[in-house]
Design goal:
This protein is α+β, with helices and mostly antiparallel strands. It contains two helices and ten strands, in the order αβββββββαβββ. It has a single domain, classed as Lipocalin (Beta Barrel). α1 crosses α2.
């Protein structure tokens, strides 16, 4: 389960970077990531996850950041994670996730499992605008993110 969560977290990180690049297109579902847009170095809050048409709201702790050196890190909702990330245009790929192994309330653990699955089902496609990103996995599931204010 922890490896699954780790992969999910890495996938999310990989997806968030391309979505950040898509900023400025106006519509979260229509803007492709462009080479000139900033993807790395942005703190993203995970707002929700849509799996099989069902929306799951994220715990307040869920977030993702991908740095220019290819490191991704964040929180799956309960556990911290880190991974290697590759961003190519609007495509994000995460390496194996490394996670902490804390146990949390069942609803948070359920979210983490679903989130990890979405991040690890293949290459993520990022779309977004200047404040939001949507990562789509190979099964059509969605990770909805918003830019987190620094500070």
């Amino acid at each position: 389960m922890n490896r699954y969560k780790q992969r999910l977290t890495l996938m999310l990180t990989a997806v968030l970077v391309p979505l950040t690049v898509a900023c400025g297109t106006g519509r979260a579902d229509s803007g492709a990531v462009s080479p000139g847009q900033q993807v790395t170095g942005v703190d993203w809050r995970v707002d929700s996850l849509t799996v099989g048409g069902t929306i799951r709201h994220a715990p307040a702790t869920a977030h993702l950041r991908i740095d220019a050196d290819g490191r991704a890190a964040g929180n799956l909702g309960c556990n911290q994670f880190s991974a290697r990330a590759t961003v190519q245009g609007d495509r994000i790929t995460l390496g194996d996730l490394r996670t902490t192994r804390m146990a949390c309330a069942p609803d948070r653990m359920d979210f983490e499992r679903a989130f990890a699955r979405a991040l690890t089902t293949g290459t993520l496609v990022a779309r977004g605008d200047d404040r939001t990103l949507t990562l789509t996995d190979g099964d059509g599931d969605l990770v909805h993110l918003s830019r987190h204010a620094s500070g």
